[in-house]
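Input sequence (113 aa), recorded before submission:
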Amino acid sequence: MKRFHIALAVADLDASIADYSQRLGNAPQVVVDGVYALWRTDLLNFSISQQPEHAGKLRRMGFVDDEVCHNQVDTDVNGIDWEQVSPLTHDLRLATAYGTPRYASNEDDLIRN
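Predicted structure, token format:
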């Protein structure tokens, strides 16, 4: 399976989780408290990370692809980095960069009040 991945920087993680959960109709499947959230569908990975100094800016685009053996990055004509990464590499990088994630066994597990 190949999923499009887009990553954004946000000012406030909790407010952004609430907003994007409403917009996407689902809670995130992965959360690292205070730092990161990820929504996964069959076609899309959408992630946000709390980086107030870069809020609203695109961090990364690319694909999470079951057939990719190692991380591949190239830059498009607009200077945007496009990555191709395996699901395992993506999850390992997530844990290394942000800390121990919580994974939802169902949507209600990560909904914030």
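Checked by second reader. The helical segments are 13-24, 87-98.
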